[in-house]
């Protein structure tokens, strides 16, 4: 791996003029000065100072150990403003409205109307014309750039992710205890949830386990993944005539509602799911209160959380569940785009400043920084075993120093690490396999003015109606009335605008 920074390196004066033209990792120039003894001292330029408004996916912010390494490599001074994942919608939209931003803003809620309005209003720089000037950024595939753009304009550097990271994790030790096979169909999933609730899988003689753990988010809870298995379109369906239908106005969505409702009323689904945050859902699983978790990407984290709580926990990730027709489907999150790293013009006032920040983001994709943000410091946090597999050697230290940075990586797909944890490696392989049957949202590269203005509020109509239906607080007629309310209050306009935008994109 290359080292970028050199401070006070002495070189022959003959080479001073050459080195004076060299640049630092962030594009800063290197100045040469005569030391008075016939040699020339080469010093790095002043570090680039930047602020970063970013999402925190762990309970606590990281220490400065890895931040210091990143700063050294990129010749920067970084001030992070961490926003907890559970409150990101409120915090990010408030920051956008108030203008209290940072040099770099992490925008993951690409369907949020406030976010899209801010992007389209010109609040952020269009980085499309600049990417090809940078070694790593120029490698971002065109299809990723297109998926991350709004009406052809790229308002930030795309977070590059796998196409589809979802799937189910089951307590394999519970399956074995109850004599159950790993499920491959929705009917089998239901029977496992039932057995995990009623069959005393932990063997303590108490009625204290639940099949599905879950959280208060239709998109990242079990619901969206289960709906994929039922064949529900991802966001929207579009037919051969270009007619758009929202996912919640399809028979498959209603099938998913009924499936989830049956789980809930029989207590095979956590009864407090509607008020449960992701971290609490993970803790419930780690404590042995639940036996099915949605999101195979989290398998290693669940294993680590269980240490000292559920010794002997054995997990199995599953990415192929059919509705009985033998077909496999899984929803794709943003067509491989996890959001944008945006640069607000209120903070980044000149093209020169933008280019310096783009160089910084480019350098984050370098292998050395990627490893800092993924594993930490070799020999301290991780090592490569005799087979070349990646292994965390100090889990607690990794969690406090490194883990929060993993979601900060601009690309999760540039490098392919072989994980020494066989379950994590299997999950990684299943995630790559998902590419073969991932279902895309056709509206990702499209735009709707009404959705930009009202989409988030309108979505709450469907979310609330879905939760109420699952929890037995509303009937099917009530849900269908909610769908009609969505259409009447702006949904029909959104549909028409997507159809028009789609028609233009096909020309």
Helices and strands in order:
Blueprint (H helix, E strand, L loop, with lengths): L8 E4 L3 H4 L11 E4 L4 E5 L4 E9 L8 H10 L1 E9 L3 H11 L5 E4 L5 H8 L21 H7 L8 E4 L7 E4 H6 L8 H13 L11 E3 L9 H9 L5 E3 L5 E3 L4 H15 L12 H9 L3 E5 L4 H7 L9 E4 L11 E2 L5 E6 L8 H14 L2 H8 L7 E3 L5 E3 L2 H7 L1 H4 L15 H13 L3 E2 L9 H22 L5 H30 L2
Parallel strand pairs: 4-5, 4-6, 9-12, 14-18
Antiparallel strand pairs: 1-3, 2-3, 6-15, 7-15, 8-12, 8-13, 10-11, 16-17
Write a structural description.
The chain has 507 residues and is of the alpha/beta class. The protein has helices spanning 16-19, 65-74, 88-98, 113-120, 142-148, 172-177, 186-198, 222-230, 251-265, 278-286, 299-305, 351-364, 367-374, 395-401, 403-406, 422-434, 449-470, 476-505, and strands spanning 9-12, 31-34, 39-43, 48-56, 76-84, 104-107, 157-160, 168-171, 210-212, 236-238, 244-246, 290-294, 315-318, 330-331, 337-342, 382-384, 390-392, 438-439. 39% of the residues lie in helices and 15% in strands. Strands 5-4-6-15-7 form a 5-stranded mixed beta sheet. Strands 9-12-8-13 form a 4-stranded mixed beta sheet. α2 (65-74) packs antiparallel against α13, α4 (113-120) packs antiparallel against α17 and α8 (222-230) crosses α9. The two termini are 46 Å apart. Mean pLDDT is 90; it is low at 1-27 and 29-42.
């Amino acid at each position: 791996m290359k080292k970028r920074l050199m401070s006070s390196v002495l070189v022959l004066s003959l080479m001073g003029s050459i080195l004076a033209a060299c640049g630092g990792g962030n594009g800063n120039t290197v100045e040469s000065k005569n030391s008075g003894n016939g040699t020339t001292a080469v010093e790095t330029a002043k570090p680039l100072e930047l602020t970063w408004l970013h999402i925190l996916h762990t309970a606590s912010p990281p220490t400065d150990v890895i931040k210091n390494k990143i700063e050294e490599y990129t010749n920067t001074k970084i001030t992070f403003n961490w926003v907890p994942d559970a409150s990101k919608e409120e915090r990010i939209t408030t920051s956008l409205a108030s203008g209290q931003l940072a040099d770099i803003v992490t925008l993951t809620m690409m369907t949020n109307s406030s976010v899209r309005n801010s992007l389209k209003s010109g609040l952020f720089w269009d980085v499309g014309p600049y990417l090809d000037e940078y070694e790593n950024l120029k490698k971002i595939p065109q299809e990723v750039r297109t998926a991350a753009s709004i009406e052809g304009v790229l308002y930030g550097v795309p977070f590059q992710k796998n196409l589809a990271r979802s799937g189910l994790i089951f307590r394999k030790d519970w399956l074995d205890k109850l004599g159950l096979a790993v499920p491959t169909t929705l009917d089998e999933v239901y029977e496992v949830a039932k057995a995990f609730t009623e069959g005393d899988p932990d063997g303590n003689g108490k009625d204290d386990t639940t099949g599905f753990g879950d959280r208060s988010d239709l998109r990242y809870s079990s619901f969206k993944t289960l709906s994929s298995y039922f064949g529900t379109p991802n966001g929207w369906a579009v037919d051969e005539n270009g007619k758009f239908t929202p996912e919640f106005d399809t028979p498959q969505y209603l099938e998913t509602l009924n499936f989830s409702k049956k789980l809930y009323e029989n207590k095979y689904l956590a009864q407090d799911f509607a008020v449960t945050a992701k971290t609490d859902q993970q803790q419930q699983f780690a404590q042995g209160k639940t036996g099915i978790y949605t999101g195979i990407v989290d398998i290693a984290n669940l294993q680590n959380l269980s240490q000292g709580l559920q010794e002997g926990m054995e997990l199995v990730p599953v990415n192929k569940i059919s509705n009985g027709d033998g077909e496999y489907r899984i929803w794709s999150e943003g067509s491989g785009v996890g959001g944008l790293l945006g640069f607000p013009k209120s903070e980044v006032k000149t093209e020169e400043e933008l280019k310096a920040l783009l160089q910084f983001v480019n350098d984050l994709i370098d292998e050395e920084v990627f490893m800092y943000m993924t594993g930490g410091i070799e020999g301290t946090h991780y090592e490569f075993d005799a087979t070349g597999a990646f292994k965390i050697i100090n889990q607690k230290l990794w969690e406090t120093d490194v883990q929060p940075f993993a979601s900060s990586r601009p690309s999760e797909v540039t490098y392919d690490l072989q994980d020494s944890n066989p379950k994590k490696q299997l999950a990684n392989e299943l995630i790559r396999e998902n590419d073969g049957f991932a279902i895309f949202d056709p509206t990702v590269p499209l735009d709707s003015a009404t959705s930009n203005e009202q989409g988030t509020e309108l979505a709450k109509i469907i979310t609330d109606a879905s939760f109420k239906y699952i929890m037995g607080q509303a009937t099917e007629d009530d849900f269908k009335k909610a769908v009609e309310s969505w259409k009447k209050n702006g949904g029909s306009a959104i549909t028409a605008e997507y159809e028009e935008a789609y028609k233009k994109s096909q020309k």
